[in-house]
Automatic annotation (TrEMBL), chain A:
GO terms for molecular function: lyase activity. This is 3-isopropylmalate dehydratase small subunit. Keywords: Lyase. InterPro entries: Aconitase/3IPM_dehydase_swvl, AconitaseA/IPMdHydase_ssu_swvl, IPMI_Swivel, LeuD.
From TrEMBL, chain B:
It is an enzyme of class 4 (lyase). Catalyzes the isomerization between 2-isopropylmalate and 3-isopropylmalate, via the formation of 2-isopropylmaleate. This is 3-isopropylmalate dehydratase large subunit. It catalyses: (2R,3S)-3-isopropylmalate = (2S)-2-isopropylmalate. Binds 1 [4Fe-4S] cluster per subunit. It comes from Anaerotalea alkaliphila. GO terms for biological process: L-leucine biosynthetic process. Keywords: 4Fe-4S, Amino-acid biosynthesis, Branched-chain amino acid biosynthesis, Iron, Iron-sulfur, Leucine biosynthesis, Lyase, Metal-binding. The lineage of its organism: Bacteria, Bacillati, Bacillota, Clostridia, Eubacteriales. PROSITE patterns: ACONITASE_1, ACONITASE_2. Pfam families: Aconitase. Heterodimer of LeuC and LeuD. Residues 7-295 form the Aconitase/3-isopropylmalate dehydratase large subunit alpha/beta/alpha domain.
Length: 174, 428
């Protein structure tokens, strides 16, 4: 199982698409590691600097329809090789969401109000987020105290996270 | 309660339900191209699982960057080519015989009503035009599809889009689907199938139906679908005539792949297309759509006609109708990529290529080309392209570039005007 805790990166926008997460010009790479410098290079978000802001982060918190567009699994891979194994959003595009779980990573959906609360309370602060896999909750802290927020995850998705992805599971079962 | 077409296909293909709402389906087709497949192949090799579930059901093409532009893309092609040979995959379309995946695979008769299809490409939803469930997936799903011939899905709800009325002259399937996406928004169909029905769809060619279904993903849809009918049978007839004694018999068999009248829908969207005008996108999301009329005169640098949305022969015919005897404006450059070798050959035969060349278009080989800015036709920073493709994301066609999505008629008219313009085929 991958690691699901660390510093949070807040991306305050809806509809961040896969071309922004990893532009097509880098899809000629045939190793995941080669994608590392290019994560979020084309993200259209005022004040965002992909080189500086991504470094040292482990969790992304964002708004609605994250990962829309292309089917490229290069998007989760670019996150993974940068040490980001969790994205928390109001909603995801279907293919991106499935790709995350297929790679044994978390795409956690929380209600709009909860996401708004996370932005209000934590964005701009150095925030640590841990996913409690057994407890189906995320634990946040920024300075003093911690906050726990439960989330729901389907049995299949949870199994993929615990077993490390879909290829191993499918090979064993089908 | 009746069933939707997608539910019927799920019921006919389900091999397992390991968890509630996890439906493992057996696959009739696994399509592969050189961008998303090589990492699946190398991962299978690394796991000691370098085999395929059925070489007959796997179809492979090099289409995104062809011919290879550098050592990296040459390597991608090589991994795919070596694998296809090693696994005895007969339907591998190498450089020279290749075309855009979602144009060449239908042309070869690979998709049939009731099929399940996956590919590591989000525009796989195109193949739903044949009454199939066709979904874009990532490389891991593709890898499992190659190895085991299965893929897991949540049960998709269906949005029914009923297209009524009569399209005005000079209004096309592309204008309709842009309007539909505007109505649904970019995530209005997430985790759902979009079913296109009604008299307007009934009257459409397979090419036009593919244009509709192609952009289902731009509203977040898992697959687009149309009901199979005599138009479907006619399109497929050369490939199925050994299977059925007559076209009527084929139609009767295929008629099981329609939704029941009392099927349950998430939403029904009725659209009368009679007043619809040619449409164009104005922002960086495919649901940001306006009538061309409101965008006329907007600056352009490049025109691109091609792609899995609008690179088929019908599209080239319409563009040529607009371009005949005209010249591309000195203010812009224009590129056309016929989607497949057959489209190219037919366009040559009909004098369409000559019209494009006389107008001043660059005619490329069949390829995905400029659409996603990883091959030819890339925009410079700050440049704008009028394009018949399907995605207008920021930087899609090149870093800092902008794309306006439109029909081939509008693109051709815009090439002549050197700025966004309505086509003379549209009488208003």
């Amino acid at each position: 199982m991958k690691s699901f805790n660390g510093k949070a990166l807040f991306l305050d926008r809806n509809d961040i698409n896969t071309d922004e997460i990893i532009p097509a010009r880098y899809l000629t790479e045939i190793t995941k590691e080669a994608l590392k410098p290019y994560l979020l290079e084309d993200l259209s978000l005022p004040g965002f600097d992909s080189r500086e802001d991504v470094a040292g982060k482990a969790v992304i918190v964002t708004r609605e329809n994250f990962g829309c567009g292309s089917s490229r699994e290069h998007a989760p891979w670019a996150l993974e090789v940068n040490g980001i194994n969790v994205v928390i959003a109001e909603s995801f595009a279907r293919i991106f969401r499935q790709n995350m779980y297929n790679c044994g990573m978390f795409a956690i959906e929380l209600p709009k109000e909860t996401i708004a609360h996370l932005f209000d309370k934590y964005a701009g602060k150095e925030t640590q987020i841990t996913v409690d896999v057994d407890g189906n909750k995320i634990i946040l802290s920024a300075g003093e105290g911690t906050e726990e927020i439960p989330f729901s995850v389907g049995g299949f998705d949870k199994t993929l996270v615990v077993e490390g992805g879909w290829v191993g599971y499918a090979d064993k079962n089908y | 309660m009746g069933k939707t077409l997608a539910e019927k296909i799920f019921d006919a293909h389900r091999v397992d339900m390991p968890f509630p709402d996890t439906h493992v389906l057996k696959l009739d087709r696994v399509f592969c191209h050189e961008i998303t497949t090589p990492i699946a192949i190398t991962d299978l090799m690394a796991r000691g699982l370098d085999r395929v579930f059925d070489p007959e059901k796997i179809k492979v093409v090099i289409d995104h960057v062809t011919p290879a532009k550098d050592s990296k893309t040459a390597e991608q092609g090589k991994i795919l080519r070596d694998w296809a040979r090693r696994q005895d995959i007969k339907d591998f379309f190498d450089i020279g015989r290749n075309g855009v995946c979602h144009a060449i695979f239908p042309e070869k008769g690979f998709v049939r009503p009731g099929f399940t299809v996956i590919m590591g490409d989000s525009h796989t939803c195109t193949h739903g035009a044949f009454g199939a469930f066709a979904a874009g997936v990532g490389t891991t799903d593709l890898e499992v599809g190659i190895l085991k011939g299965v893929c897991a899905f949540h049960f998709p709800k269906t949005i029914k889009v009923v297209l009524e009325g009569t399209m005005r002259e000079g209004v096309y399937a592309k204008d309709v689907i842009l309007h539909v996406i505007q109505q649904l928004t970019v995530n209005g169909a997430t985790n759902m199938v979009i079913e296109f029905t009604g008299p307007v769809v009934d009257a459409m060619s397979m090419e036009a139906r593919m244009t509709l279904c192609n952009m289902a993903i731009e509203a977040g849809g898992t697959s687009g679908v149309c009901y199979p009918d005599m138009t479907t049978v006619e399109y497929l007839w050369d490939f199925i005539k050994e299977e059925y004694p007559s076209k009527e018999a084929a139609l009767e068999d295929y008629s099981q792949w329609v939704s029941d009248e009392d099927a349950e829908y998430e939403k029904v969207l009725k659209i009368d297309v009679s007043d619809l005008e040619p449409m164009v996108t104005f922002g960086y999301k495919p649901d940001q759509v306006k009538p061309v009329r409101e965008m006329e005169g907007e600056k352009l640098d490049q025109i691109y006609i091609g792609s899995c949305t609008n690179g088929r022969i019908e599209d080239l015919r319409v563009a040529a109708q607009v371009l005949k005897g005209q010249k591309v404006s000195d203010d812009v450059r224009a590129i056309v990529s016929p989607a497949t070798p057959n489209v190219y050959k037919q366009a040559l035969k009909e004098g369409i290529i000559e019209i494009f060349q006389d107008a001043g278009f660059c005619v490329t080989n069949p390829t995905c080309g400029a659409c996603l800015g990883m091959s030819n036709g890339v925009l410079a920073e700050g440049e704008v392209c009028a394009s018949t493709t399907n995605r207008n994301f920021n930087g899609r066609m090149g870093k800092g570039g902008m794309v306006h999505l439109m029909s081939p008629a509008t693109a051709a008219a815009s090439a002549i005007a050197g700025k966004i313009a309505n086509s003379p085929l549209y009488k208003g």
